[in-house]
Structure formats: structure tokens, C-alpha cells
Specification:
Layout: H1 2-6, E1 16-25, E2 28-35, E3 41-47, H2 54-69, E4 78-81, E5 93-98, E6 102-103, H3 104-110, H4 116-135, E7 138-139, E8 148-150, E9 156-158, E10 165-166, H5 202-217, H6 227-238, H7 243-247, H8 252-260, H9 269-272, H10 278-287, H11 298-302, H12 336-348, H13 352-360, H14 372-385, H15 409-418, H16 423-429, H17 438-454, E11 458-459, E12 482-483, H18 484-493
Helix pairs in contact: 2-12, 4-5, 5-10
Family: Belongs to the protein kinase superfamily. CMGC Ser/Thr protein kinase family. MAP kinase subfamily.
Catalytic activity: L-seryl-[protein] + ATP = O-phospho-L-seryl-[protein] + ADP + H(+); L-threonyl-[protein] + ATP = O-phospho-L-threonyl-[protein] + ADP + H(+)
EC number: 2.7.11.24
């Protein structure tokens, strides 16, 4: 009965047996399921009526694209996306993820005996993931305990990239300020009232600091009821910001509010968290600096003495910045049909045979050739990305075809007759949208493989297994010495449980 209620008309649904519903929200429903072909436990996220609002559909497109491009053991992995029954009219999306047992919010809430080793290993994983994300020029923008999945073996994975953004040098700052950003309790002070004109990776560092403090105390550090209250709580702990910091705030109301605020001295972190490791408090103080310029990068934070027993550069990979061509859709206003086509294109990434047919342009009668302007945009983007590498040439060929070429249907019909076995699949699923340069895709895939190849080493921890309620540190099984390649193998082959 659960299967019938959960799935609509998706043919691949027969591959999965729904076990239970594990989460519900405005986005849809998440169910735990078993892949009947492999016996593997998975989580299936069903998103209903995603094209009712173009903004919601664009957020979903952004998330599934980022999770395809960001492959790291500390980031949740999409295993599969089900192929919709009808390319032009589908409404629901089913994304299959690796199954995790809980989230960090539940772990903190249910466990009162977490050890200093737990705190250290948790923060290490979060910063390691953030280093990778930031070197891709991506900001998560909504880090909080509920967006960090957890397993009983202490493994954490960052999820929910719906508010994330890829940053490019020529991106207008307005793009960053049009959306709701970060849950208030984990929101950096420069986001409270739009203090700054442009985001920096420091907004995610602040959120990580708030999460770390919540681990240490068992409760949120700055549970503000509104923006003004949030700033009051922040300054109660950190003290009044300096005149220099206030002067850099672009929002006039925020400047006046902070300038008129009663002067507050900073409270020593050791007074607020008397039982915490002094090294942990010293790092926490750096993460929660009021001025974003005073916060360390994720890479710098990983070199802090607090991680002396864990730090290993082989376990802390970085990656290449994401190509702006992947997010060209952010630069234009999308229609409902356009975003549906772009999401369908992303879904094809998990269906290699159909993707190849799409890239080969089998459905030539409806294939939309890029204009000369599109070709030049790709050429200039290539030159920008490879500037300084000694390669001034571009592999892109100029086809100034501003008007779609006419096609004779009879020629295509003959071609289909020669391949009658695959005609139905091709005509049912080939996209209308102009495909991305296949060379650009290969570069992206190659970059991803290079990163995964470089990820070897050891993930070390003295912490032990977690459980979703009442996690006991006394029964911890050591994870010290686990090979980083094994973690990637688990991510690609089976679920850690």
C-alpha cells in the first residue's frame, strides 16, 4: 500500500520497496526504501507539483545539479533520479539518496553523553566538507543541524543545497540578496539587515561555529526571535562591534541600530562554556568573529591546533571551481517549460544511454541549434576559466547559426526505420533543450574523477557509534584508521549503517 501511495506513474518504482515515511515538509515526502535489485537501503525524496512555482522548480534544479557536481564523502550523494513517464508534462520528481539514520539536530537532542572526541570529529568532518564546497566557489547558505545527516558510526554528511549558490566573479551581488538566506539562529551578523554588499564564504563559517557551540552546550547559541533580538544575543556574547566594523556596514538602519546600542563588553567563551576543551573554545571564538574578515577559511580552520590528532591533507581534498556554463540559467528568467526541460536534462545524467542519445541529437526534427551569441558566450567562458593556464586557444567551434535549420522529416523517418528497436525510447525522451557542450561535460566529469582519485588517506576519530535516541559514548567503536578511499567506496557502492 505504501508503494501505491508514494509512487505515481513512474515505471522504475517497481525497483523499490517502501519501508516507511521518515520525513515530511513543504518540499514533499522522504521515504526509507529497499532497492529490490541490490538489496541496498536508500532514501527516496518525492517532490510534488514542483512546477507550480518556477522559483521552487529552479531551487530543485540548483540542488540536484550541485549534488551531481559536488562529490565528497561528507556531502550526501544522489544515487539515482527516476525517469519521468512524460518529458513535457511530468509534475513529480523522485530522487534516490543514500540512506542516513538521523540528523545532527536529533543527535544533539537525544544524546547527553557525547564526548569531546565526538565534538572534534563532527567539526572536522563539517570543515572538511566546507573546504571542498568553498573551493568549488559554492556557498551553502543554510547550514544548520537539521541539514546535516548522521549515522550511528559518527559519520556526518551535509545536505539540502536548495539555497546554495555558485559564485562567479561577474555575478551581480543582487543575485545573492533576492532569496531568504539561512535560518535566523545560524545566520551570520552581516546577513542580519544586509550588512554587506556581497557574500563571502565566511557566512558558512559563522553557521558552522553556531552548530559547534550547539554541540558543546546542547542548545542553540543565538535563538533570536527576530533580527534585532538576534543581534542583541550576538553582541551580548561578542560585545559591541568596533567602530571600524560598523562603518563597513552598508545598511544605514543597521549602522544606526548598532551605533546606538549600549556598549557591551565581550563575555569570555570559557565563562559561557566552562566545561569545554580550551582548544575547542579558542577555535570557536575564531569561527564566531563578528567581522567576517576575522573568521578563518575552512582550510585555515582545519590547521588549528584543535585538530592536531586528526588533520591529514590527504583527507581534506579541494576541487576546481564550478563552470559558469553549468549555471547559465541563473542569468535569465526561466519559464515553467524551460526549467522543466533543464531538470529533465539533469535527470538524464542518471540514465547514460538516453543521455547519449540526447547528446547525439537523434531527435533532429526538434533539435534547437544554439545561436551565434550562445557560441560566443561559451567561447568567452572557456577563455575566462582557463586564463593563466598558458592555453589561449579555445576548442569551441563557431557555428553562427542564428536561425534553426530546417530539417526534412522523411530523412529522419528513414533513420528511425533503420533503428526501429530504439525509436520509441528516443522519441519519448529526447529533450527539446539545446544540450551543453559535450566537451564541457567531459571536462566536468574528468575534474570530478580527478578529485575522487586524489582522495586517499585516513579518517581518524576516537568517537564511537551514535544512535538516533540515547546515543551512548561508552559503546563507541573506534573509527580511527579508516581509509578515506573506503569511505568513497561506501558512498559509491553501499550505505553505511
Amino acid at each position: 500500500m505504501l508503494d501505491k501511495e508514494f509512487f505515481t506513474e513512474y515505471g522504475e518504482a517497481s525497483q523499490y520497496e517502501i519501508q516507511e515515511i521518515v520525513g515530511k515538509g513543504s518540499y514533499g515526502v522522504v521515504a526509507a526504501a529497499v532497492d529490490t535489485h541490490t538489496g541496498e537501503s536508500v532514501a527516496i525524496k518525492k517532490m510534488n507539483d514542483v512546477f507550480e512555482h518556477v522559483s521552487d522548480a529552479t531551487r530543485i534544479l540548483r540542488e540536484i545539479k550541485l549534488l551531481r557536481l559536488l562529490r565528497h564523502p561528507d556531502i550526501v550523494k544522489i544515487k539515482h533520479i527516476m525517469l519521468p513517464p512524460c518529458r513535457r508534462e511530468f509534475k513529480d520528481i523522485y530522487v534516490v539518496f543514500e540512506l542516513m539514520e538521523s540528523d545532527l539536530h536529533q543527535v544533539i537532542k537525544a544524546n547527553d553523553d557525547l564526548t569531546p572526541e565526538h565534538y572534534q570529529f563532527f567539526l572536522y568532518q563539517l570543515l572538511r566538507a566546507l573546504k571542498y564546497i568553498h573551493t568549488a566557489n559554492v556557498f551553502h547558505r543554510d547550514l544548520k543541524p537539521k541539514n546535516i545527516l548522521a549515522n550511528a558510526d559518527c559519520k556526518l554528511k551535509i545536505c539540502d543545497f536548495g539555497l546554495a549558490r555558485a559564485s562567479f566573479n561577474d555575478t551581480p551581488s543582487a543575485v545573492f540578496w533576492t532569496d531568504y538566506v539561512a535560518t535566523r539562529w545560524y545566520r551570520a551578523p552581516e546577513l542580519c539587515g544586509s550588512f554587506s554588499s556581497k557574500y563571502t564564504p565566511a557566512i558558512d563559517i559563522w553557521s558552522i561555529g553556531c552548530i559547534f557551540a550547539e554541540m558543546l552546550t546542547g542548545k542553540p547559541l543565538f535563538p533570536g526571535k527576530n533580527v534585532a533580538h538576534e543581534l542583541d544575543l550576538i553582541t551580548d556574547l561578542l560585545g559591541s562591534p568596533s567602530a571600524e566594523s560598523i562603518a563597513r556596514i552598508r545598511n544605514e538602519k543597521a549602522r544606526r541600530y548598532l551605533s546606538s546600542m549600549k556598549k557591551k563588553p565581550p563575555v569570555p567563551f570559557s565563562q559561557r562554556l566552562p566545561n569545554a576543551d580550551p582548544l575547542a573554545l579558542r577555535l570557536l571564538e575564531r569561527l564566531l568573529a563578528f567581522d567576517p574578515r576575522d573568521r578563518p577559511s575552512a582550510e585555515e580552520a582545519l590547521t588549528d591546533p584543535y585538530f592536531r590528532s586528526l588533520a591529514n591533507l590527504d583527507d581534506e581534498p579541494s576541487t576546481k571551481p564550478i563552470s559558469k556554463l553549468e549555471f547559465d540559467f541563473e542569468r535569465r528568467k526561466l519559464t515553467k517549460d524551460a526549467v522543466r526541460e533543464l531538470i529533465y536534462r539533469e535527470i538524464l545524467e542518471y540514465h547514460p544511454q538516453m543521455l547519449q542519445e540526447y547528446l547525439n541529437g537523434i531527435d533532429r526534427t526538434r533539435f534547437m541549434y544554439p545561436s551565434g551569441v550562445d557560441q560566443y558566450k561559451q567561447q568567452f567562458a572557456h577563455l575566462e576559466e582557463h586564463h593563466g593556464e598558458g592555453d589561449i586557444s579555445t576548442p569551441l567551434r563557431r557555428h553562427c547559426t542564428s536561425v534553426p535549420r530546417e530539417r526534412v522529416c522523411s530523412d529522419i523517418d528513414e533513420a528511425f526505420d533503420e533503428n526501429s528497436d530504439c525509436t520509441t525510447a528516443a522519441t519519448a525522451h529526447i529533450s527539446l533543450w539545446s544540450p551543453t557542450s559535450s566537451q564541457g561535460m567531459k571536462e566536468t566529469e574528468t575534474a570530478g574523477k580527478d578529485v575522487l582519485t586524489k582522495q586517499n588517506g585516513h579518517s581518524k576519530s576516537d568517537c564511537g557509534p551514535l544512535k538516533t535516541s540515547g546515543i551512548g559514548a561508552s559503546t563507541c567503536a573506534s573509527m580511527r584508521g579508516r581509509n578515506f578511499e573506503e569511505t568513497i567506496s561506501e558512498q559509491n557502492g553501499r550505505v553505511v549503517s
